[in-house]
Amino acid sequence: MGCWAIAVHGGAGVDPKLPEERQEEARRVLRRCLGVGAAGLRAGLPAVDVVEMVVRELETDPVFNSGRGSALTQEGTVEMEASIMDGRGRRCGSVSGLTTVKNPVSLARLVMDRSPHSYLAFHGAEDFAREQGVEVVDNSYFITDENVRILKLAKEANSIVYDYRVPVPSADTCSASAGPVGATTDGGLQMNGLPISIYAPETVGCVAVDSGGWCAAATSTGGLMNKMSGRIGDSPLIGSGTYACGACAVSCTGEGEAIIRSTLARDVAALMEYKGLGLQEAVDYALKERLDEGKAGLIAVSRNGEVAHGFNTVGMFRGCATEDGFMDVAIW
Fold this sequence. Notes:
Subunit structure: Heterotetramer of two alpha and two beta chains arranged as a dimer of alpha/beta heterodimers.
Strand order of the largest sheet: 4-3-2-8-7-1-13-14
CATH class: Alpha Beta
Catalytic activity: Cleavage of a beta-linked Asp residue from the N-terminus of a polypeptide
GO molecular function: asparaginase activity; beta-aspartyl-peptidase activity
CATH superfamily: (Glycosyl)asparaginase
Number of helices: 8
Largest sheet: 8 strands, mixed
EC number: 3.4.19.5
Enzyme class: hydrolase
CATH topology: Glutamine Phosphoribosylpyrophosphate, subunit 1, domain 1
């Protein structure tokens, strides 16, 4: 029997001027979710049950960008996505384009357990949710007044906003010489060659290893504020935003397009399996060598009960707990 361990994240890329009360609110949610997960592992629950349970908690709390409190599309609606993977047998399930499912991660679990497929999206995923009897709500449940306000600012600035909690200036506050928010400047941020305004996504994720040495991972998000309808990021893509196998489990957060190109989560596992790197070594190598100029962060656990994390952004909302009683929550 091994030692259990768990890690959670609430997104990489944090506004350095984030008010202290917002920081403490994020820490509070992470501590609570870690407590839920640690209690489950202590009680002998399988890792896959624990990661689903923890991400459900994160989806229900509007502090982060998943479930209730998700970022809004250009049309002012919510389109959510999630994935889950069980290292035992490398089983997986993913969903995208959800508009009424209260807990996307649990629908991803049902795709894994009760369908012949690994990925369902949009109308097909919504139909499957109703067939399975999962809880559904009106799309308005996921929308907060703050998100509506930030979407309005993003539209005025004609920009995608990564961190929907960080206000962007309206277009009339930008001088004509400066150009629109997100215009390419020295050191300016880009996605696939196009300018963006602020980099600070708030996807949520959880990885765990149980006392039997089995690893699992789950990731959930509302995506980007002011994104095009139909946009799919890294979070539901197995091998990119989420991965679990016999060696480790990984959940990523950050610039989705860069994470997709680098198959970041799978790369960590491959570095351990094929190059013989330790968990933290693999995390560090993947972030440094595989992202090109992309910005991202990730959390990971190994079958031996190790915990690792890394990010190349200003900060990452994160926390971890281990069987020996250690618990830590951090941002910077």
